[in-house]
Write a structure and sequence with these properties.
Number of strands: 22
Helix content: 25-40%
Strand content: 15-25%
CATH class of the largest domain: Alpha Beta
Structural class: alpha+beta
CATH architecture of the largest domain: Alpha-Beta Complex
Strand order of the largest sheet: 2-11-8-9
Number of domains: 2
CATH superfamily of the largest domain: DNA methylase specificity domains
CATH topology of the largest domain: Adenine-n6-DNA-methyltransferase TaqI, Chain A, domain 2
């Protein structure tokens, strides 16, 4: 339904903006809430040092400085584990694009308006040009509170109002600096900061539990004592190269043959323990849906999603997923992009870049960990085709040998993954609670 709002000439803010979008009623209502707050108010620009943008870099590698891009900045957290790496000397990096503990990272375009505080685990990382670095100079403001304020409805509506663009929204430094910040007493800010820190603790617990599950599986299927070192030279009979229709040396690394021999002892392949699910998604105008794309997958085997309307559905929004499905990316499998669909994600939609697998002869939690094992992903990567957009076929994935651990080990892995998922959900709940507390404080409901 179309909305009509009448704006006085005195409200045109110096005629700097004349587009109707800028004068939506929700923005005026938000300004009224801020104005009515009894707490001290200031602009963001008055509370921080000059804003710094990052820089563009495209030569990524497996090692080096973490390179934080816009997709790595989430509401209240930085996904540093899955960040790209740039292998450049620290002497060549501008100090302005390095980050330190207490900085706030803010996504200025694309998925704009997300902010998170830098913790010690990502100090010294580099930010891309899509991200702004905010560094507080006013001691009245706690960085965790300020970041949560920007993520809250009251902060986000201000940011949204100041964006420019049609489809690829962005915000400029001057516009961001003009955002109004409400400053409660420090003890109230500290309560919000503690919620965010507790959320980070739960998130770290989730990753730790996943790593324990992975190590348990590696040991159970015999990889603990297997020689998986990368050899400098080896010989292969010509017959093998002809059978494989490959001449690249990497394909015949001895470690891959050792791993495949070990996995093949079970006599099982992926197609024996899982079925491909193809439940097509049909976008409908006005109907909301949650979309999981490649960039939403985290290194603990979980995936976030983006909510949108049917008319805005990307062309790659293809498959409907269900509880306990395992989705795995066919594109660049070396990146270990597999995730388990949780109960709360029933009916979500995923990209065509995923194969959706329904585990049948193996617990889905165990299957997830297996598909994300580094050596398994390396083997899958050997079978990719094309160089610009390397992908593996579904048939090659289904023919991958699978090792199933003993029942006792499987149960332990299921427990660890379940505990990790619950920790992840608690982290999300705590971040939402922190945002609600900010909104209630400002609205006088606390």
């Amino acid at each position: 339904m179309a909305q009509i709002s009448i704006v006085r000439k005195s409200q045109l803010e110096g005629a700097m903006r004349l587009d109707a979008e800028y004068y939506q009623p929700k923005y005026f209502q938000n300004e009224a809430v801020i104005g009515a707050s009894a707490f001290t108010k200031s602009t963001l620009g008055e509370l921080i040092y000059p804003i710094r943008n990052g820089f563009d870099y495209r030569d990524f590698g497996e090692a080096g400085h973490p390179y934080i891009r816009v997709g790595d900045v989430l509401f209240g957290e930085v996904n540093y584990r899955d960040a790209a790496k740039v292998d450049i000397s620290s002497d060549t990096i501008k100090k302005d694009v390095k980050i330190k503990v207490g900085d706030i990272l803010f996504s200025r375009k694309g998925t704009f308006g997300r902010s998170a505080v830098v913790e010690d685990v990502f100090e010294g990382s580099i930010i891309s040009s899509e991200i702004m670095r905010l560094r507080i100079k006013d001691e009245r403001v706690n960085p965790y509170y300020l970041s949560t304020f920007l993520n809250s409805r009251i902060g986000f509506l201000q940011v949204e109002r100041r964006t420019h663009g049609v489809s690829n929204y962005s915000i400029s430094q001057p516009d961001l600096q003009s955002v109004k910040i409400v400053i409660p007493p420090k003890e109230l800010q500290l309560g919000i900061a503690n919620l965010v820190k507790d959320a980070h603790h739960e998130k770290e617990l989730s990753y730790t539990l996943y790593l324990q599950a992975e190590q348990l599986l590696l040991d159970a299927i015999g990889f603990k004592n297997l020689d998986l070192s990368h050899q400098l030279y080896w010989t292969v009979p010509f017959k093998k190269t002809k059978e494989a229709n490959r001449l690249d040396a990497e394909h015949f690394q001895p470690k891959y043959e050792h791993a495949l021999t070990l996995l093949g002892q079970s006599g099982l392949q992926v197609k024996d323990v899982a079925k491909v699910r193809k439940d097509p998604f049909k976008a409908r105008a006005g109907q909301p849906f949650n979309y999981i794309e490649i960039g939403n997958v985290h290194s603990n085997g979980l995936a976030d999603s983006e909510r949108g309307l049917g008319e805005d559905a990307p062309s790659r929004a293809t498959w409907v997923v269900h509880t306990n499905d395992v989705i795995t990316s066919t594109v660049r499998p070396i990146r270990r992009l597999s995730a388990l669909i949780g109960e709360e994600q029933e009916g979500y939609v995923c990209s065509s870049g995923f194969v959706v697998l329904q585990a049948a002869g193996i617990q889905p939690e165990v299957f997830l960990v297996f598909l994300r094992l580094p050596i398994v992903c390396e083997i899958l990567d050997l079978k990719t085709k094309a160089s610009m957009y390397p992908a593996i076929s579904t048939d090659d994935l289904l023919e991958l040998p699978v090792a199933v651990p003993p029942k006792r080990v499987s149960q332990h892995i299921v427990q660890l993954i379940g505990d990790g998922h619950r920790a992840w959900r608690r982290a999300r709940q705590l971040l939402e609670e922190a945002k609600s507390k900010v909104e209630n404080l400002i609205e006088g409901k606390a």
